UniProtKB/TrEMBL annotation:
<keyword id="KW-0496">Mitochondrion</keyword>
<keyword id="KW-0249">Electron transport</keyword>
<feature type="compositionally biased region" description="Basic and acidic residues">
    <location>
        <begin position="162"/>
        <end position="180"/>
    </location>
</feature>
<protein>
    <recommendedName>
        <fullName>NADH dehydrogenase [ubiquinone] 1 alpha subcomplex subunit 12</fullName>
    </recommendedName>
</protein>
<keyword id="KW-0472">Membrane</keyword>
<comment type="similarity">
    <text>Belongs to the complex I NDUFA12 subunit family.</text>
</comment>
<comment type="function">
    <text>Accessory subunit of the mitochondrial membrane respiratory chain NADH dehydrogenase (Complex I), that is believed not to be involved in catalysis. Complex I functions in the transfer of electrons from NADH to the respiratory chain. The immediate electron acceptor for the enzyme is believed to be ubiquinone.</text>
</comment>
<feature type="region of interest" description="Disordered">
    <location>
        <begin position="128"/>
        <end position="198"/>
    </location>
</feature>
<dbReference type="GO" id="GO:0045271">
    <property type="term" value="C:respiratory chain complex I"/>
</dbReference>
<dbReference type="Pfam" id="PF05071">
    <property type="entry name" value="NDUFA12"/>
</dbReference>
<dbReference type="InterPro" id="IPR007763">
    <property type="entry name" value="NDUFA12"/>
</dbReference>
<keyword id="KW-0813">Transport</keyword>
<keyword id="KW-0999">Mitochondrion inner membrane</keyword>
<dbReference type="GO" id="GO:0005743">
    <property type="term" value="C:mitochondrial inner membrane"/>
</dbReference>
<dbReference type="GO" id="GO:0006979">
    <property type="term" value="P:response to oxidative stress"/>
</dbReference>
<keyword id="KW-0679">Respiratory chain</keyword>
Length: 198
């Protein structure tokens, strides 16, 4: 059984009666309710903007606040309120970083890009595991502690890395020579230390 919808608040005219009859014969009840919701939305101050793939619905409302027209944006969650279920493009729209809401085409493109990145990550992890297996090294699977980086190549860049004692002696002599005034010129120039004004 189809439901009828009256599109006019005034007395029914011949046109509205015909329109009701056509719509009830052509459209199933769900389509009628969607059509009615859209029609009723024209007269409400809450404007439906879009929906994401999870089913969260996004709205905006333009109202006056202290004599200034402000736009309020919000989301109605489909199920449980989970802010992490909101896609980035919708977060940007809600925060006002985007002027226009994302289009379905744009959302599909961004979702395809996210899937592409996930596939690349999986491929790179697999290549890294294969490389580690070829090198004969096994990854340590200690829970709670991560291995630090190998600093041997970094330390080898410094010429005095093997002479630890001479470095300590050199820093002591430099500390004694430093004063608040710069000394020398050219190759023998030594900058002075900065002293705060008193």
């Amino acid at each position: 059984m189809y439901t009828t919808v009256v599109f006019s608040v005034r007395i029914k005219t011949n046109f509205t009666v015909k329109l009701e009859k056509i719509l009830t014969e052509i459209l199933p009840p769900k389509s009628m309710s969607k059509l009615w919701a859209r029609f009723a939305g024209l007269f409400s101050s809450n404007n439906f903007v879009g929906i994401d793939k999870v089913g969260n619905r996004y709205f905006k409302n333009i109202g006056e606040l202290d004599g200034v027209m402000k736009e309020k944006r919000w989301v109605t969650f489909k199920g449980e309120e989970d802010p992490t279920s909101i896609p980035v493009e919708w977060i940007c729209w809600l925060n006002g970083q985007r002027k226009n809401a994302p289009t379905p085409e744009e959302m599909a493109e961004l979702e395809a890009r996210r899937e592409f990145v996930k596939l690349n990550i999986a491929r790179l992890k697999k290549e890294e595991e294969e490389r580690m297996a070829k090198d004969g090294k096994r990854k340590a699977t200690n829970i709670g502690k991560a291995d630090g980086p190998d600093l041997k190549s970094f330390v080898q860049q410094f010429p005095d890395a093997s002479k630890g004692d001479t470095k300590a002696e050199a820093s002591d002599t430099q500390h004694e020579k430093r004063s608040s005034e710069p000394t020398g010129s050219g190759e023998s120039f030594r900058p002075g230390t900065w002293q705060p004004p008193t």
